[in-house]
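Lecture 7 notes: from sequence to structure.
We start with the chain below.
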Amino acid sequence: MSNSVKIIPRPGAYEHPFSGLGLEFDPLGVQADRTGLVLHETGYDRANSHWNFPSVLSPFWRVYYNAERSHCIVFGDAFYELGPDHIVLIPDHQLFHCLGQRPTPAFWVHFSFDQKPASDQPIPILLKPGKAELGLINSIRPLMQENSVPAERIRRLSLALLNVLVSRPEIRWRPALPVQLTMLIRHIDENAGRKIPNEELAKLAGISVEGIYRMFRNHLGASPTNYISQIRIRKASHLLKQNEYGIDEIAELTGFPNRAYFSRVFKQITGMSPGSYRTSL
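Predicted structure tokens for the same chain:
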């Protein structure tokens, strides 16, 4: 990378999904719902300039779409120009560089996804924009410029866009989760407000408690207890944004025995206390 490149540090360029320029949704560490997706940020900048970030390596996925040819991303020795001909998807934990100084209309989404690309899937993932994708992007961009940004509508449209993108047949994925685990994920999502013992999950899946533990660890990288806590924190983060409930009420609604335990788990997963998260919105 050239020493003459002007670097403007922004948290969204590296380990943090909130850039300070987009509309913020769920923080890192929040567990996905049944779609496997967690939306972190949607952004649109009509004149994005000084887009120079060396050695980006982030724990979340990115979508980039520029309506004009300008900025580029660099993977190894390969340069990929951003422009109207393709939508770019970059999985988590991929090393790349960002280059661009000319003011350019830029659209982006930061998100997490519980599926992983197959080992032979080319990275970055370049997708020719279809009518569905362009329609959703063109619906989101003007909303981002309104005086009172309709956050919930943008959330729904952004998640619709992500679902369309990850469903594209050009993308090759690792094998899907076992049917039993998919069923348990749905069950947890629907019942996270109450106690869900491992014995209940084992009975539903028709396997032993030890088998449940192994299945969660092997496929989700977390024990059943930790996974349930992550689901509860995702639901709690939504409630914290609404300012309708106090923190004690949110702890009760999301299945935690008390505020202290809820606050401890929330901070362990998101890096922020519930109060700090609410005031940061």
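Points to note: The chain is about 40% helix and 20% strand. The radius of gyration is 20 Å.
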